[in-house]
């Protein structure tokens, strides 16, 4: 980290975030992009489209931070007051800019729409040399780069893909060039061991935390141990050495290193091993295949998946024996095993995987409470099947997510060890 | 809204949110739960596991808000300092509580694990009468309800399902009983009309905003017009009247009212019409079926789905003609039409739907750029097919999400109008 950049604030403006109707993925995107270029966000603040709130957050940002990122409230409607409020805060006027108006008309034309008079307000821009215009090729609200009071303040729309566009095309390149430096860390990805046990193992070493900052990140499918550089000249060597120590101490629970997420790692490993995968999902309802196909290039390893949600569809599509379903239930090792057999028969994939469980809120019994999930996979080459029973905690979506993630982790463990 | 409760702050503590590795779904869950009982969050602050930061956020909360919700940093490891910091802030000591230790051991036993000594710290609790113990049946870190300086401060773990448990079992019931009142609003859900056009239509009425607070919430699949009560005795009547006015003005673009999300509404409508649906997904990779099965009770309307990601699987599973694929491409009206035919043949569902597109980042051409998506559905009874071409903006995940949502919206429009 560069020592001349002390702190970074993200300010998200929008009632829809405060009311809980929109998840603040803008903040996580921005902070992860910043993290990747060595800038750690020190505070994220979400406030409403309210001039007084915006002023207070700006005051705080300018007092505490060197970099301020503001999103939202740049739309054409009456509740969008960010631009006006920022201008009055810094004492700028607003000026109609014909070049921005041309850009807005182009964007509308691409969508086959003629802009309204109301959109003309979006072509107004601060009349100060302190403010640089950032073209928003993905939308009509211009971005702003304000250099004032010794700070850099970046203002983008709240529409995710417009913000992302401005981040990747303007802000990140600018910061890379002018501000950031390496922030070095390594991740050790563990599974089947609780955070407290990991911690106990590590803290029993006399020189813990080995000169580094160590963080334990619970992930649902396991715990990631993050080893962060203390900074300074030998930061990288200190991290690498601590990483080896920790890996040696936790080895049998480690399934990967430095992964972005299990599905990303699974796609990478399948490619590396020239394997393809097919899935049969019951309780996850397609989440496993959706997360796999979130990864660009996944088409090289994923050809098809089946969401066999009803008992009948397990029989029709995968030839699961109705007697198996009647005797052991859809949520059983036996059913998952036959789902795997069905996949081997109807696909060509080298790896087939299947999951069946009770995501809740209903459907639980004493013997199989909500969160009971059977999942596993089979490697066509060896015919070996790996099926496990889980008892996941959490609500419906959490059980789905944990099931989809853990299935990927188990396949990674097996393929990665070959 | 009760006038004696002015403001509410949510403070989320956790480096993993600030680094962008974890999306802050805790804040959106809490704020939506609070919103539902009439409490509008005025600020969400995310800070690191740092005593000074926690103190600053507490200072601000106590100055500005009446209700403060704090999550995170209650784990057993060295980076978890929330409890200690709060105690030192309010001047409390910490005391080992045998009853909490028993609870922790029970939780561990359920997971088949013996607790470590380190977990004993989690059984320490503030020794003040100002702090009430909240049992965390989903985990080991106790919740706290602090009544100090005339404020209510609720502290929960950052693990989502533990936080959710404490919210639903303790905090929300407490607030309902003691604090909240109705916050009345109506939503008009529109599609195929831009926010600026909606705004222009409404603002041309002389008495806009009809005595209400009107918000425009862009949703990817459309814009939701939210009509909020101005408060006071006739708030409900004023909202209902404005709702009718706006509905009359925007009618042909309205596809639903007050929906939670399109898939929720789709499940409701299918149930109401005694219909089932099957899906064939290419670019969405299972996201449509996953979102549908996020809805409890969806098994009544969804039996099976197919993720036909490769050309070959479209042919093998859905009998799409290879010539159609060669001539028109997988991303075409013709292919989607044959995917629908295939679904009609291999399923019994009354509604079948299919989607094929280019989610990016690669695969785009001049004629079919990234974001080009064909999707549609067919009603078995009439045989009618409804297929549309879209040009969605955004990155891979945004295109997937917009495709899955818009497909649901189009089915809703059709079934809802019958």
Give an overview in words.
The structure is a homodimer of 418-residue chains. With 418 residues, chain A is of the alpha/beta class. Chain A has helices at residues 15-18, 25-36, 51-64, 82-90, 98-110, 160-178, 195-203, 235-250, 262-272, 287-292, 311-318, 322-328, 333-346, 396-417, and strands spanning 8-13, 43-47, 67-71, 94-96, 124-126, 131-134, 143-148, 151-156, 185-190, 213-218, 223-228, 254-257, 277-281, 302-308, 351-357, 372-379, 385-391. Chain A folds into three domains: 8-178, MoaB/Mog-like domain (Molybdenum Cofactor Biosythetic Enzyme, Chain A), CATH 3.40.980; 185-257, Alpha-Beta Plaits (2-Layer Sandwich); 262-417, CinA-like (Maf protein, Alpha-Beta Complex). Chain A has a six-stranded mixed β-sheet, sandwiched between helices. Chain A has a five-stranded mixed β-sheet with strand order 14-13-15-16-17, with helices on both faces. Chain A has a four-stranded antiparallel β-sheet with strand order 10-11-9-12. In chain A, α2 packs parallel to α6 and α9 (262-272) runs parallel beside α14. The longest helix of chain A has 22 residues, at 396-417. Chain A is globular. The mean pLDDT of chain A is 92. At the A-B interface, α1, α2, β2, α6 and α7 of A face α1, α2, β2, α6 and α7 of B.
Helices and strands in order, then pairings?
Two copies of one chain form a homodimer.
Chain A: E1 8-13, H1 15-18, H2 25-36, E2 43-47, H3 51-64, E3 67-71, H4 82-90, E4 94-96, H5 98-110, E5 124-126, E6 131-134, E7 143-148, E8 151-156, H6 160-178, E9 185-190, H7 195-203, E10 213-218, E11 223-228, H8 235-250, E12 254-257, H9 262-272, E13 277-281, H10 287-292, E14 302-308, H11 311-318, H12 322-328, H13 333-346, E15 351-357, E16 372-379, E17 385-391, H14 396-417
Parallel strand pairs in A: 1-2, 1-3, 3-8, 13-14, 13-15
Antiparallel strand pairs in A: 4-5, 6-7, 7-8, 9-11, 9-12, 10-11, 15-16, 16-17
């Amino acid at each position: 980290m560069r020592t001349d950049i002390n702190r970074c604030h993200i300010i998200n403006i929008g009632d829809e975030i405060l009311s809980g109707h929109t998840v603040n993925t803008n903040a996580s995107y921005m902070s992860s992009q910043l993290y990747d270029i060595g800038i750690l966000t020190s505070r994220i603040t979400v406030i409403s489209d309210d001039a007084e709130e915006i002023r207070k957050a700006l005051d705080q940002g300018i007092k505490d931070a060197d970099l301020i990122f503001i999103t939202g409230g740049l739309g054409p409607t009456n509740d969008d007051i960010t631009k006006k409020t920022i201008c009055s805060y810094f004492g700028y006027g607003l000026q109609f800019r014909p070049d921005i108006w041309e850009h807005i008309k182009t964007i509308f034309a691409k969508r086959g729409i003629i802009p309204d008079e109301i959109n003309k307000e979006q072509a107004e821009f601060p009349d100060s040399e302190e403010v640089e215009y950032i073209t928003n090729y993905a939308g009509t609200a211009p971005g702003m780069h304000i250099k004032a009071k010794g700070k850099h303040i970046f203002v983008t729309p709240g529409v995710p893909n417009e913000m992302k566009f401005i981040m990747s095309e303007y802000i990140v390149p600018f910061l890379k060039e002018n501000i950031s430096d390496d922030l070095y860390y390594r991740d050790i990805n563990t599974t089947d061991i609780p955070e407290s046990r990991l911690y106990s193992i590590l803290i029993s070493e006399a020189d813990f935390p080995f000169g580094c900052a160590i963080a334990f990140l619970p992930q649902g499918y396991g715990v990631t141990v993050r080893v962060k550089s203390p900074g300074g000249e030998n930061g990288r060597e200190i991290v690498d050495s601590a990483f080896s120590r920790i890996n040696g101490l936790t080895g049998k629970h480690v399934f990967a290193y430095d992964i972005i997420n299990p599905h990303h790692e699974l796609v990478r490993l399948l490619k590396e091993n020239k394997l393809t995968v097919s899935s049969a999902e019951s309780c996850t309802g397609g989440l496993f295949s959706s997360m796999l196909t979130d990864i660009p290039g996944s088409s090289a390893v994923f050809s098809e998946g089946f969401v066999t949600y009803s008992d009948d569809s397990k029989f029709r599509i995968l030839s699961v024996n109705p007697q198996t379903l009647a005797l052991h239930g859809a949520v059983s090792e036996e059913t998952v095993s036959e789902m795997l057999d069905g996949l081997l028969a109807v696909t060509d994939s080298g790896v087939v995987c299947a999951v069946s469980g009770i995501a809740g809120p209903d459907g639980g019994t004493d013997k199989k409470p909500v969160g009971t999930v059977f999942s596993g996979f089979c490697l066509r080459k060896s015919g070996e099947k790996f099926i496990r029973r889980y008892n996941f905690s959490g609500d419906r979506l959490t059980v789905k997510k944990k099931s989809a993630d853990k299935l990927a982790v188990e396949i990674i463990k097996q393929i990665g060890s070959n």
